[in-house]
Amino acid sequence: MATLVRNNFCIAPFNQITFSPLGNFSPCPEIGGRPWINPDGNILKMWSSENFEKLRSSFLNNEKNSICNRCWAQEELGQGSLRKRLLVNSTAGVPKFKPGELVPFLDHHHKIGPQQINIMVGNKCNLRCRSCYVRSSITYKKEGQYYQEKNNLKSSIYYIENLKPTEFSDEQIDQIFQLSGNVGRIEFYGGEPLVDTKTLSLLQRYVDSGLSKNITLFYNTNGITPIKEVHYKLWSQFKSLEFNFSVDDIYDRFTYSRHPGKWDDWVKNLNFVRNYPWEIPVQVTAICTVGILNIYYVPEILDKLDELNIKVFLNTIDIPNYYSIKCLPMAIKTAIKEKLNRYHSKTRINFFLNYLDCDEDLSIWEDFKFWTKEKDEYRKENFSITYPEFYKIIKDYDPTFTY
């Protein structure tokens, strides 16, 4: 059957797969393996699963599949979605396909395996970011148990009683390698991929087989984790290497949002990677995920990253929903928009202004206040001190948010 590229088409389910050791999987990292689960964790079965086939068919029929609501919502607000980025040549900035064009890879060749594999390494991480949760950082478990017991919660995203540190089994590593007949790019996400050791054995298999010279590696890292010599030794035998260094804020606000990480350590690691005597092409980008905690400070964050001479990719928080800028009360949104409208490169942040025009949800706003104060109490931090200008705006609107 001919594959025609139409306006609602996404190439992701035809050329990439995202999965975790627990058997969760999805087409792309944007939805992070959340939609589906294969209970036995067999990665080969995931690629040929009924879930994938149904999603492929929906895109061939030009349907807007609800699984991909994150991209559809971003596009409605003028943000560049992953779906659209995948259909554009990133270097030339032109569409990869013409409307109605037949794409031979999608018709048959994809059955051999994906061109890109996105690996969610597990739940091991050395940080407890405000916008994260225990399934992505096992270090949240003790803190989450405190919240559970203190507030008599039936459940929360910060604590799962029997959750243990997870990593890929030897069998799963073998399955990933078997799925690599077409692969030219492998992306690693966390937890924190640089604290994971099991995937190093996968890299060694690519090196031993000679496949590594045709594969680009990508790491989405918190930028705090020191890189070991074993990484450098393996990486040097691949085609190229890319990093996203996560940075949600700067100085003291960095630690508040990415506890207990330090801004100076992030800058030190960034400079070390950029100055390392690489023998392969290397690209380093900063990724700033914007939510309630940092939306007011976006201009300062971008100016600082520009000063560091690093390209920045801007993203938005959707989960947990009480950190999304959509749920800010309208009066607070108005004050933020006044500041953002004074930024010297407004086109760079226009989609944030669109987000701020969304309707408020005050029930979620109460959740934001609750969890901000709960985490402050446990971590001995203070929102009003760390974010004094923004706190004043919030306090003027909502006097109940007291410290």
Can you put this structure into words, describing what you see?
There is one protein chain. This protein folds into two domains: 12-114, no CATH class; 118-397, TIM Barrel, CATH 3.20.20. Strands 3-2-1-4-6-7-8-10-11 form a nine-stranded mixed beta sheet. Strands 5-9 form a two-stranded antiparallel sheet. It contains 18 helices and eleven strands. Helix 9 (198-209) packs parallel to helix 10. The protein is globular and about 60 Å long. The chain is 39% helix and 12% strand. The model has no long low-confidence stretch (mean pLDDT 91). It starts with 11 loop residues before the first helix and ends in a 6-residue tail after the last helix. It has helices at 12-15, 43-47, 50-60, 69-76, 82-86, 104-107, 141-151, 170-178, 198-209, 229-235, 251-257, 263-275, 298-307, 330-340, 350-356, 362-379, 383-386, 388-397; strands spanning 16-19, 24-26, 36-37, 116-120, 128-129, 185-189, 216-221, 240-246, 258-259, 282-290, 312-316. With 403 residues, the protein is an alpha/beta fold.
- Reported by name, the CATH topology of the largest domain is TIM Barrel
From the helix content, strand content and strand pairing, which structural class follows? alpha/beta
Average pLDDT figure: 91
Largest beta-sheet characterization: 9 strands, mixed
Supply the CATH architecture of the largest domain.
Answer: Alpha-Beta Barrel
Distance between the termini: 63 Å
**Helical region count?**
18
- Rg, alpha carbons: 22 Å
- CATH class call of the largest domain: Alpha Beta
Strand order of the largest sheet: 3-2-1-4-6-7-8-10-11
Work out the number of β strands.
11
Low-confidence stretches: none
* Shape, per Cα inertia axes: globular
- The percent range for strand residues is 5-15%
Strand-and-helix sequence, N→C?
HEEEHHHHHEEHHEHEHEHEHEHEHHHHH
Q: How many structural domains?
A: 2
Specify the helix fraction band.
Answer: 25-40%
